[in-house]
């Protein structure tokens, strides 16, 4: 059987019919990697898996929700979609709109989007507008536009986005044969923690949901919107999450937490994933592993843990270059070269 994406695989759990035109780039089926090296570093008393969503078609988990949002938009006769974005939603919306043959517009906060993501949206032909403001300002304007004009919103406020994203929980259960004891996940606009929890509940499982915001962009933890959020993890640089209440519901119902990690802790986890497991993620993805490191002594021994890694490292190559050791420049001298590589 040829794999046809999440709608084909989980059709009976999704709000689609035989009349729904499935717009797919064969998203989903992302690897759940056993992180043996990280397990050892963290003490070896847990079973750790990494759900690497960076292998989706546009390099992030957003594709799961976007295949649903764009498919339903086309079914409803929409010829144009719009979103506010810190990058990944823009890239995904642009790609799936191109696939569907409809127009796409994205509004991004000026200076707060990684170039890897911006380049994707531009290459797929979206109309990109850089707003002088933050993500929350962009979302406010997008909502006003969709209320007045015939253009479909494809941010995570669109319920079909959550429906598509919940399939990641299904895949984890399919792979493990059960739900993990703990699920660690980054929290930005909070749609993903909402979606995973919805998926787990639909399959009658209840892992503890462990969500983590960046310390400079932690409105849920601090209990109030952050007017000017700050973090190197641009994908979760959001001061007033659209799915705030649902994220709190996921936390409370699962008896989990939503806490903060610092940029320094995120970069530490970012480097560990690359150097120990060979997995290159964008900084926001590493918030889940940073949270695990922070909570490792508080977890039950022999727990099964899943960390969601939301996007590929090539989304933000500038951060990687700034974080890594720079190459040595050496003359064409064999002795010097051998010395430099430790031989």
Q: Beta-strand level of the residues, as a percent range?
A: 5-15%
Question: Mind telling me the CATH class of the largest domain?
Answer: Alpha Beta
| CATH-derived architecture of the largest domain | 3-Layer(aba) Sandwich
State the helix count: 15
> What general outline do the C-alpha atoms trace?
globular
Uncertain spans:
none
Largest sheet: 6 strands, mixed
Please state how the strands of the largest beta sheet are arranged side by side.
Answer: 1-2-10-7-8-9
Q: Tell me the helix content.
A: 40-55%
- Secondary structure category: alpha/beta
Number of strands: 10
What gap, in angstroms, lies between the N and C termini? 50 Å
Average pLDDT figure: 94
> CATH topology of the largest domain, what is it called?
Rossmann fold
Gyration radius (Cα, Å) is 20 Å
Count of domains: 2
Order of helices and strands: HEHEHEHEHEHEHHEHEHHEHHEHH
Concise summary:
41% of the residues lie in helices and 15% in strands. By secondary structure, the protein is an alpha/beta fold.
Task: Give the secondary structure arrangement, pairings included.
Blueprint: H1 6-9, E1 32-34, H2 36-41, E2 47-52, H3 62-75, E3 80-84, H4 88-100, E4 103-109, H5 115-123, E5 127-131, H6 135-148, E6 152-153, H7 159-165, H8 167-176, E7 182-186, H9 191-202, E8 208-214, H10 219-222, H11 244-254, E9 257-261, H12 263-277, H13 287-295, E10 304-309, H14 317-323, H15 334-340
Helix pairs in contact: 3-4, 3-7, 4-5, 7-9, 8-9, 9-11, 12-13
């Amino acid at each position: 059987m040829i794999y046809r994406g999440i709608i084909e695989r989980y059709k009976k759990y999704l709000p689609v019919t035989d009349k729904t035109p499935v717009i797919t780039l064969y998203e989903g089926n992302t690897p759940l990697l056993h992180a043996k090296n990280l397990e050892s570093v963290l003490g070896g008393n847990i079973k750790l898996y990494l759900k690497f969503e960076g292998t989706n078609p546009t390099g992030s988990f957003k594709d799961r929700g976007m295949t649903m949002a764009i498919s339903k938009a086309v079914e409803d006769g929409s010829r144009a979609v719009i979103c506010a974005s810190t990058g990944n939603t823009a890239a995904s919306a642009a790609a799936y709109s191109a696939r569907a043959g409809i127009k796409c517009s994205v509004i991004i906060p000026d200076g707060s989007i990684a170039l890897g993501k911006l380049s994707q949206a531009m290459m797929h032909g979206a109309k990109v507008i850089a707003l002088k403001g933050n993500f929350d300002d962009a979302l406010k304007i997008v909502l006003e536009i969709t209320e007045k004009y015939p253009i479909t919103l494809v941010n995570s406020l669109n319920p079909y986005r959550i429906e598509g994203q919940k399939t990641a929980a299904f895949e984890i259960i399919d792979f493990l044969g059960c739900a993990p004891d703990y699920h660690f996940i980054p929290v930005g606009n909070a749609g993903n923690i909402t979606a995973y929890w919805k998926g787990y509940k639909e399959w009658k499982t209840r892992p503890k949901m462990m969500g983590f915001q960046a310390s400079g962009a932690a409105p849920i933890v601090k209990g109030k919107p952050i007017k000017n959020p700050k973090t190197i993890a641009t994908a979760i640089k959001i001061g007033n999450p659209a799915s705030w209440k649902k994220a709190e519901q996921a936390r409370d119902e699962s008896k989990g937490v939503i806490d903060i990690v610092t940029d320094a802790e995120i970069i530490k986890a970012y480097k560990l994933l690359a150097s120990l497991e060979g997995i290159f993620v964008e900084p926001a993805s590493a918030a889940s592993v940073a949270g695990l490191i922070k909570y490792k002594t508080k977890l039950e021994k022999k727990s099964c843990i899943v960390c969601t890694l939301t996007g590929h490292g090539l989304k933000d190559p500038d951060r990687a270059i700034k974080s890594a050791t720079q190459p040595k420049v050496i003359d064409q001298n064999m002795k010097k070269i051998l010395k430099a590589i430790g031989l």
